[in-house]
Amino acid sequence: MDAWALSYGSSVAFVCVSCAGPQLATQFGTELKLKNCHNTWVEEDDMPTWGQLGCNGLIVLDGSHSVVCRASPAYMQVRELAFRHVETLLQALVGSQPVPHLVPGATVLLKGLVAKPELNGQVGMCVEDEGPSGRCAVALRDGRTLSLKPCNLEVVGATVSGDGCSGGGCANGGCGTGQCALEVDPQRAEGGCTTEGCGKEGCAKRSPVEAEDCSRLDGAADGAGGGAVIKVPSVKVAVLDEEHARCEAALVQLAERRDSAALRQLLCAYEEHFAHEEALLDQHLYAGVKQEGGFSADKSARSSHFADHERMLSEIRALLLLGSDSLDDAISDAISAAEVQRLTAEFERHATAYDGGYADRLSAAMAL
């Protein structure tokens, strides 16, 4: 924000607003060395009726204070594209140009393709807005990047959302947290949306991870070795620390084997841990936040945290789907060392950025 404020000068006002009083505003100003943007706070009685934490995206207003963007893509979901999304909007507004419909970070649905009709219905992400060629660059889940006309793209809701449905387009109460659905019958699941789409009554089908893949990790936290040492900070809740150790063991095993069986075991460890962690957080810290009116820091934190769970699961599922015809359980090195390293770094980042944030509050709440 401060770098942007320095870059855009008086053309754009960048405002950081604390929803936890002046102390937090002062802390952020000091730690981030804010000098060029506006840094303020809002009193509890004046709390806005909507909004989100900065990690969930930014709100963009035009010169007449009309809302142009209620929430830009979250950095944790799209990385550098989140910044490019905002910059694309600002460049249009500063230049008195219409706000572009397709901007970097936007989730799009492919449609109306004649040359490659098999791609119609696929979901991708805009990584470059419309250039002189009149086409946008769109990254697909299988790793390909295509140059497509805007008329063949429809902007859809974010594929990852902590409060909504993702990856399966499910309805009628079938969506929830963590994609770790509890089976009601073989075709129906409650509690999560998956890449498997929807079953009966619009509810998500359970992800096809075999139970035997999950059971292989029992005791692995004590027996894993030979790979890189992974140890995230304690969250001060013994059962969650044990689950973190199981995830760490799965990552070590993946580094050693680099096959799809190890990747499925990692997915299973994540699914079980994320579902349990979300349930504990909802029970002890976030009870009732989904029903709260107006802006809630806890509600926004919950949304951001749970959405990051969904993103991590989706990345692993995408790897499994991408390699469904080529990854063999018996073939080592089927998953690149760079991919394993990235997954490991993502787990460590998540545990530090999100899990470390609730450690004191959750442990205290569970001790009552």
UniProtKB/TrEMBL annotation:
Family named by the database record: Belongs to the hemerythrin family.
Swiss-Prot/TrEMBL keywords: Iron, Metal-binding
Highest taxon of source: Eukaryota
This protein's name: Hemerythrin-like domain-containing protein
Molecular functions per Gene Ontology: metal ion binding
InterPro entries, alphabetized: Hemerythrin-like_sf (IPR035938)
SUPFAM superfamilies: Hemerythrin-like
